[in-house]
Write a structure and sequence with these properties.
The chain has helices at 28-34, 135-138, 141-151, and strands spanning 2-5, 12-15, 21-25, 39-45, 49-52, 55-60, 68-73, 79-84, 91-95, 109-111. Strand 6 (55-60) and strand 7 form a beta hairpin. Helix content is 14%, strand content 33%. Strands 6-7-8-9-4-3-10 form a seven-stranded mixed beta sheet. It is globular, with a radius of gyration of 15 Å.
């Protein structure tokens, strides 16, 4: 079971299973919202993430224009996970950096590399896309089945 917490430790969480897929997103909105060059999101079914502690939610923009809700620790403000409006309550995009051992969630894909910072190198062994990609092209069959069940 993967475990994590916010910066101050007031919010803790556990992922009941491994994530379905992990995105390394280089879009300008992720850069702005994280204050970093990219964000790592572990995509998992919402009901497989158990969390405790005081949280707040913020509605923020996405490149698609569909928006997301970011769940943060109410005490320190660290983003723990997000949920995209079109899949609200079905999936969580857990911020890999909040895991106790982030090395356990290596990125499966690098997206929106067309807007990445020029000084950020891309790994040749991780598929990269200037924008987004088709799930069917990259996700393993078992992960696609989990995604289909979660969105049903």
């Amino acid at each position: 079971m993967l475990k994590g917490k916010c910066g101050c430790g007031a919010v803790t969480y556990q992922m009941k299973t491994n994530p379905m897929f992990v995105h390394c997103c280089h879009c300008s909105e992720c850069q702005r919202q994280t204050g970093s060059a990219y964000v790592l999101n572990a995509i998992i079914e919402a009901d497989r993430v158990i969390f405790e502690g005081p949280t707040t939610e913020n509605a923020l923009a996405t490149p698609s224009g569909k928006g997301q809700i970011v769940t943060r620790c109410a005490a320190c403000g660290v983003a723990i996970f997000s949920s995209y409006m079109i899949r609200l309550g079905k999936l969580r995009y857990v911020r890999v950096g909040t895991l106790d051992d982030p090395d356990l969630c290596r990125p499966d894909v690098q997206i929106f590399t067309g807007s990445k910072q020029a000084w950020v190198p891309l790994s040749d062994d991780i598929p990269s896309f200037d924008g987004f990609y088709k799930f069917d092209d990259l996700w393993p069959p078992a992960a696609l089945e989990r995604l289909k069940l979660a969105l049903a």
